[in-house]
Amino acid sequence: MFDLNGKTALVTGASGGIGAAIARALHAAGATVALSGTRKEALEALAGELNGRTHILPCNLSQKDETEKLVPAAEAAMGGLDILVNNAGITRDMLFMRLKDEDWDAVINVNLTSAFRLSRAALRGMMKKRFGRIIQITSVVGVTGNPGQGNYAAAKAGMIGMSKSLAGEVASRGVTVNCVAPGFIESPMTDALTDAQKEAILRMVPTGRLGTGADVAAACVYLASAEAAYVTGQTLHVNGGMAMI
Amino acid sequence: MSDVAERVKKIVVEHLGVEADKVVDKANFIDDLGADSLDTVELVMAFEEEFGVEIPDDAAETILTVGDAVKFLEKAKAA
Q1: How large is the ipTM?
Q2: b/e per residue, A51-89, with b = 16+ CB within 10 A?
Q3: CB atoms B42 and A127 under 8 Å
Q4: Is B32 a catalytic residue?
Q5: So what's the pLDDT on residue B31?
Q6: CATH number of this structure's domain B3-78
Q7: Does B57 touch chain A (CB under 8 A)?
Q8: What is the band of A151 on the pLDDT scale with cuts at 50, 70, 90?
Q9: Which sequence spans correspond to the domains of chain B?
Q10: Mean pLDDT throughout A157-169?
Q11: Average pLDDT of chain A?
Q12: Chain B interface, best mutation among A123, A124, A129, by max B CB count within 10 A
């Protein structure tokens, strides 16, 4: 089950915790993985750990021209692209009344617009091959909303609507488009929380623990697999039951 | 038949899975050959690749029949 041998994948934001976990899991399932991100050292460290079947493609997704070169570079490096995981994301949290245009624009640009551009670029090869897997890493807050994250929640909700629309267009060509929506996941961001804050969060999570990058990555491996061919336009929530939607 | 027309016809037959004798100049991709809107996008992509030309969106919109495609590509090739 879920054998990705011979498949090629591009993971954005692979220098971050969840992105690295996704790259590890796809790689462990047999895929060749192109690691993209802004921090080259972190990508190199990950590539060293995976030891083979990786390519390092640094990219700043806030730059249009860099973004547009990323998929062609991945295709050139790996001889094609079967699986695209749009994982890269940034936050600029602020109460709505104080939210500045530039913080709105930055979050929409990196989290949503880059996912649009990369997906569009990947489609050509996928449609031709009659096989493709596009996976957007969205967030539970894209569905529930979250005070202080108006920009982030808008971008993540945008990914869901975008994916459903695209899924309908390309389903007949063997290309699926799905979202994975993590809840609270262990990361440098949650490490910075106080014990009291963590306790408050855990009261909302029936599973009683924070999620891990591996929890999110497992959902990606499934959606990337041949077995998930009949699943498209969906959002798979990986949140320990904190929101049942 | 010109070389361009033959190559266009081959692509259309392969891509849409239609009988070669139905792929005549007047055949409309959607109405006569059963293409959907995504097929037309893919056909344009295939023409671009085969002939090494770029077909901008506004030009692609005017390519409705096999003959339209041949005419456009003959012109593009001559240019």
Answers
A1: 0.80
A2: eeebbbbbbebbeeeebeebbebbbebbebbbbbbbbbb
A3: yes
A4: no
A5: 95
A6: 1.10.1200.10
A7: no
A8: very high
A9: 3-78
A10: 98
A11: 96
A12: A124
